[in-house]
Amino acid sequence: MPMNNWRPRRGDADRVGGNDDVPPLPRLTVEAIEDLAQQLRFAPRHALKRDLARTEQLASEIDPEQTYPEDFIIFRITGYRKQIDTPALITGQALLGELAALVEHLSAAAKIAIDEVPGALAPEEVCRRWQVSRKTLERYRKRGLISRRVVGESGRPRVVFPPEAVEAFEKRQPEILKSASSFTRLDDTTRERVIELARREALSGKSLNQAALCVSEQIGRGHETVRQILRKHDANSDDPIFEESGPLDDRQRRFAYRAWRRAIEPGEIADRLGKPRPAVQRVISDERASVLRSLLPAIRDGLDTAPDEIGIETKFATEGIGYGGPTGLADLLALARAVTVMPPAEERARAGAYVALRARAATKIEALPAHGVSAPDVDRIETDLRWAARIKAELVRHQLPTLLRTIEARLGHEAEAVGASKLRAIMGALMRSACVSIDRHHPSTGGRLAAPVSLAADRAMREIMQRLLIKPKSSTLPGRARRVIGSTERVADFTMRICPWQREIEPDARLRAGIEHLSDEHAELLRLRFGFAPTPAGAPLTLAELADRLDSRPLHVARSERAAIRNAIAAVRRGDTMNP
User: Fold this and answer.
1) Is 148 in a helix, a strand, or coil?
2) Taking the CB of residue 208, how many other CB atoms lie within 10 A of it?
3) Which residues pair with 89 in a beta bridge?
4) Alpha-helix residue ranges (DSSP H) falling in 301-419
5) Contact 387/538 with Cβ under 8 angstroms?
6) Can you tell me the distance from the alpha carbon of 304 to that of 307, in angstroms, rounded to the nearest whole number?
């Protein structure tokens, strides 16, 4: 490329000059802080400088051992007291790193000049002061060491450290700094001793990680340092100490996910695959995220709105939802003849909540990383989609009279006259058409659902009559006796089949029936978890929300959930065996 046509790419300006490398802005990992940074970056410069000072002050007061609610953090930084019903809790240690990153984001947005940070220390000066490497210094920034991104005399961005921030970190982390400054690399003799000690630990059945922990205590060095020595040795040696397996292949990943869906304990899955339990749990989370990504087109079908938290907060988003549907064809017809029309305000509120939950889930799915997905993040999305399905079930339930009127208007007689098998197919086809109409209905337009549902149902009815060779009354032979649908004619619970994502994220279809055979404690846990009415919470709950309600830990609640699911399915199976 001719030099006279060269233009610096993004970041090249930071690299020109050799030692003035500026790392990219640190990533914000806590959602509340990330959202706050996005909002503040458009503030005027004087407001950014004010929020910057408040953030640095808050960072100096954080206790790593405590937890802090997000509304408190937002208030301390902006002075605005935001009303949040269930604010997220952030540990002090995690918050320190986030505030340090936020300071850098705010100082970059405010274009702070280096003259505005008197006595600022360059990274290499801090490294010499503490006798640490640049990589170690980067780790300290994640532990709460405050730095500012300023505009240097040349106009290029630079990262500097305010002297008061350096002194505060020295007071807060004296042991870490002392350990780092006294660090020496392991000599060959010590490395050989590490390998010898590890072989002894391996004979007792310890894994590489467990052996590294024991050896690190014996030689007084870091666990990670020893672990990396052992991993490097085994990777390059013809006589490895540990038989460590590689990552799970595609078949093993699918097996782990299917086993998890069947409520099998992760420890048992790990034992079956011969893999560490944490690795299996990470794979399961990634597979759950992959399933959600594959469902994204269906979730977004007919959706043209951003998340609307206000729509979710309506009382109709939680009241009167979670009820099952009939499992008998005769009962389904009886329900269609008995249900009343949903009031306009209630229908509009439920439709709005349904749209808002889908939009929120779609936004969160798009934000999921390719690997290393957080299980709580996936759980939140799956719970929102179950919640949306519970709301949609009520919208469908109140459209059953419209579907039945369409059937009988086209047939020219009562629906039962076509017989159970044909009626079952007709109801399924019209139910699907109603679901599509609801998905593409926009409550903001103010129209009622009955109109689009009726049109779609009539179109579907014409098509299925042609396919099943059903003729209307005017073309049938007179004098035929009225048919009666027997109590043995079964249909699937429509509330568990109205959304395309339910097959992947709902529990086993037999679970609702099995709940009746469980202890009160397990039954209540599953009702709360999956939003099966009656439940005091109304909507389905995430594991974290359920643990908070039960005053327990998510890990314990997850274990109880899996046990309850297995017991419920086993009870149904026993009943099926006794009553074929």
Assistant:
1) strand
2) 22
3) 69
4) 309-312, 329-338, 344-366, 375-397, 400-411
5) no
6) 10
Phi–psi pair at 109, nearest 5 degrees: -65, -35
Q: Which amino acid is at 452?
A: P
**DSSP 8-state symbol, 68:** E
User: Is the pLDDT assigned to residue 265 strictly greater than 60?
Assistant: yes
Contacts of 77 (CB under 8 A, 6+ apart): 36, 51, 54, 55, 58, 102
Nearest to 376 by CA among 548, 537, 569, 560: 548
Strand partners, 113: 151
For the stretch 537-543, contacts whose Cβ atoms lie closer than 8 Å and that sit 24 or more positions apart, written own/partner, are 537/318, 538/317, 538/318, 538/319, 538/321, 538/322, 539/317, 539/318, 539/321, 539/322, 539/387, 539/390, 540/322, 540/383, 540/386, 540/387, 540/390, 541/383, 542/376, 542/379, 542/380, 542/383, 543/376, 543/379
Rounded Cα–Cα distance for residues 334 and 327 (Å): 12
pLDDT tens column, 458-502: 999 999 999 999 988 754 445 555 577 888 899 999 999 999 999
Q: Tell me how far the alpha carbon of residue 450 is from its chain's centroid.
A: 34
Within 8 A by CB and 6+ apart from 425, the residues are 464, 468
Task: Give the span between the Cα atoms of 245 and 477, in whole angstroms.
Answer: 72
- pLDDT tens profile 395-448: 999 999 999 999 999 999 999 999 999 999 999 999 999 999 999 988 877 789
Helix (H) / strand (E) containing 277: helix 277-300
Tokens of 537: 């919470």
Which residue is it, tokens 């320190």? 96
pLDDT at residue 271 in the model: 84
Task: Show Cβ contacts of residue 60 under 8 Å, excluding neighbours closer than 6 positions.
Answer: 168
Sequence-distant (≥ 6) Cβ neighbours of residue 237 within 8 angstroms:
none
**Preceding peptide of 376 cis, ω within 30°:** no
The Cα–Cα gap between 539 and 65 comes to 33
Q: Is the pLDDT score of 4 beyond 50?
A: no
CB 51 within 8 A of CB 44: no
- Token pair 């999956």 is found at 530
Sign of CA dihedral 407, 409, 413, 418: negative
Is the torsion defined by CA of 196, 202, 207, 211 positive or negative? negative
Mean pLDDT in residue range 187-203? 87
Secondary structure element (H or E) that encloses residue 89, with its range: strand 89-91
The SS3 assignment for 117 reads: coil
Distance between CA atoms of 259 and 483, rounded to whole angstroms? Answer: 45
HSE-CB of 172 using CA atoms within 13 angstroms: 20
Give counts: helices (H), strands (E), the chain: 27, 4
**Nearest of 572, 559, 453, 464 to residue 515 by alpha carbon:** 572
